[in-house]
Amino acid sequence: MQPNKKKPNPIDTHVGSRVRLRRTMLGMSQEKLGDSLGITFQQVQKYEKGSNRIGASRLQHISEILGVPVSFFFEDAPGSGGQKAAGLEEHGSDYVVDFLSTSEGLQLNRAFVRIADPKVRRRVIELIKTLADAENATEEG
Questions:
Q1: In a structure prediction context, what are the per-residue pLDDT tens digits for the chain, which is 141 residues long?
Q2: Is the model's pTM score more than 0.70?
């Protein structure tokens, strides 16, 4: 009989995926985050997979290093009563996390946040919406 491997708690998995999301958005390696926390990159991997639970004080320290409030790690968490982050109603956080985990998603995000002028940002968003609408119209028509 094989030993029963305990599955990670869905909240631990979600929090870990949010740590990974924010770390990759910043272009930070697991090793650098681990060094900042005084732990190995392997421990960071376990946190990000949800196989090891992140304690409260460690999560607070991670939030400081990654420059986000602790609540960031719980946005759209399973069982949170449908609490959604702003602008994610259509697809939920899994869609956003999956997108930002891709090379294209990271490149787009990094380039976009470097645009300082809010008017230019709005124009970029409108351009992307127009391109997406045109593509959808072509697919439907």
A1: 455 567 888 999 999 999 998 898 888 999 999 999 999 999 999 999 999 999 999 999 999 999 999 998 988 888 755 444 444 444 455 666 677 767 788 788 888 888 889 899 899 989 988 998 888 777 776
A2: no
Helix, strand, coil: what percent of the chain each, to 5? Answer: 65, 0, 35
Q: Tell me how far apart the terminal alpha carbons of the chain are, to the nearest angstrom.
A: 57
Structure tokens of 81?
A: 């009563």
Distances (CA, A) of 28 to 15, 42, 111, 138: 17, 15, 16, 39
